Amino acid sequence: MKPAWAWQFEPGTLQRIDTQLPASIAREWAWGGSTGAGIKVAVVDSGIDGSHPLVGSVAGGAVVLADPDATRGARVIEGPHEDLFGHGTACAAIIRAAAPDAELYSVRVLGEKLTGRGAVFAEGMRWALANDMDVLNMSLSTSRADYYGLFHEITDAAYFKRAMVVCAVNNVRMPSYPSQYASVFSVAAHSGRDPFHLDYNPAPPVEFGAPGIDLEVAWLGGKTIRATGNSFAAPHISGLIARILGKHPGLTPFQMKTVLMAVADNAS
Amino acid sequence: MGDDALADLAQLAADLGPVLRPRGNEEFLQALVETARLVFDAAACSIALLDEDEEGLEFRVAAGVGAEMTVGLRIPIDRGIAGWAVVAGQPIAIDDVRQDPRFAADVAETTGYVPRSIMAMPLESEQRTFGVIEVLDRRQSGGEGAEDMELLALFARQATLAVETSRIFSNLGQALFEAAALAAPGEDLRSALEKRAIAAPRAQTELAELALLFHDLGRLGGEERLAAARIVDDFLAYARKRQR
User: What average pLDDT score do residues A35-61 get?
Assistant: First the structure.
């Protein structure tokens, strides 16, 4: 089974990257010896179960709720909270595996009702930026055209803060936000299982391929579950970014893209 | 309501009705889930739409195991696999859902049938998210060759077009009837529609204005109507191209 966009990473479809940089960047240089220590990663999702053995711990977080009376349509309640669905826990465990010493923060924006969802997503991203997160993992999207400007503004703010916004792409072939913007790391699933198997697609908007098909992922109640979706591919990239940042703090999002492209499995 | 407005409305409804009225939305969705169930060789396939308060999903059509019990069933949006797909705007497939204690308990309580696998995809247009299509226990295919999620996306697209067309039609109908209802004695439909356009929220204003244009177009000669239809056609082609 393949989520949409996975076809781009099929052998025979995926182009080789022939671009050569003046000096080569190897995986050893990129993340060798790094554990992601000192890097803050926000999982903007359904919450994280910090007691799950594959997650270990959660450093902090907040719940964002729609509130029509609030200035920006949403309010934030900081503090511990549960995972309503299991998905945020799955993402956290994937990131933990790649960057064992990164600090994981849960920003719960999914749940309750759907009304005001754009304002809630946006406020969650703002909270993450205000709290100096280095990486924002967003395995969620909206196709609503009226959110285009709002998310553009926030992803730009993230870029200027050197925060890496990693987004799963939608399953339909129309623009979805925030995965659509150039400064965002947009991710779809390839059919590989090796968590370090990374593809770079030279024909975006879907720019990175990572495992997301038929994976064993952490879920509610300390269990694991077999799952498929682009939403599981995104945290693989978030984890690698945290690992690289742990060794090379200060890289900008576009420098990070350059590093990931250079060490991709389909690079020369 | 004035006699003029009534006459105009009757004419407009007669002219536009057959063109705009989508045939049997629910029947179409029912046929769609039946087709999807056969294609996936699945135990069941269903479509649930969001409640007006956007806090729950109500199953509107279903095919396969437990279909009768499923239709009309309401599930909260803040848990479960289908709930996550809707709130995250992302498709998801889980192959051993019984590992999810909360999901299994919820489903068993409601339909009595606990599936092994579930694939759920949100139904959304550029304007809104409005539901989910899910497939339970599809055949376990070869993995590499199967492209179930891509296929489900096609069914989701069809369901989206059907639901959105139906919604736009009913909004348009509502705009027309409200205008007619609000018309003062002796007032014609044109000015009633203008008033309706001023009073309505933005999206509905646009529809009311559109209705007004069609009303005026209907009064032109054959050649003018044809030319107008071509312009609308060209615009639609352009707009679709822009969206891609």
Answer: 97
ipTM of the complex: 0.89
Within the 74-133 window of chain B, which residues sit less than 8 Å (CB to CB) from chain A?
77-81, 83-84, 86-97, 99-102, 119, 121, 124-129
Scan residues 127-156 of B and list those with Cβ closer than 8 Å to A: 127-129, 141, 143-144, 146-150, 153, 156
pLDDT band per the 50, 70, 90 thresholds, residue A170: confident
CATH number at residue B132: 3.30.450.40
pLDDT, greater one: B233 or B118:
B118
Structure-model confidence comparison of residues B205 and A15, the more confident one: A15
Picking from B148, B163, B178, the residue at the C-terminal end of a domain is B163
Is the per-residue pLDDT at B22 higher than 60? Answer: no
B15 with B58, same domain: the answer is no
Q: Are residues B131 and B37 in the same domain?
A: yes
**B39 in the same domain as B115:** yes
Mean pLDDT for chain B overall: 80
Q: Answer whether B157 touches A (CB < 8 Å).
A: yes
Cβ–Cβ gap B124/A142 under 8 Å: yes
DSSP output for chain B: --HHHHHHHHHHHHHHHHHHPPS-HHHHHHHHHHHHHHHHT-SEEEEEEE-TTSSEEEEEEEEETTHHHHTT-EEETTSHHHHHHHHHT--EEES-GGG-HHHHHHHHHHHS---S-EEEEEEE-SS-EEEEEEEES-----SSS--HHHHHHHHHHHHHHHHHHHHHHHHHHHHHHHHHHHPPTT--HHHHHHHHHHHS-HHHHHHHHHHHHHHHHTTS-HHHHHHHHHHHHHHHHHHHHHH-
Query: Does residue B38 share a domain with residue B12?
Result: no
Question: Does A80 map to a domain?
Answer: yes
Q: Which domain holds residue B213?
A: 3-21+166-243
Instruction: Please tell me whether residues B30 and B103 are part of one structural domain.
Output: yes
CB spacing of A140 vs B77 below 8 angstroms: no
Summarised one tens digit per residue, pLDDT across range B33-56 is: 999 999 999 999 999 999 988 889
Where does a domain end: B111, B137, B163?
B163
Give me the domain span that covers residue A155.
6-10+33-262
Closest Cα in chain B to A146? B127
State the pLDDT at residue A1: 66
Average pLDDT value over all residues in chain A = 93
What pLDDT does residue B166 have? 80
Q: Judge if B40 and B118 occupy the same domain.
A: yes
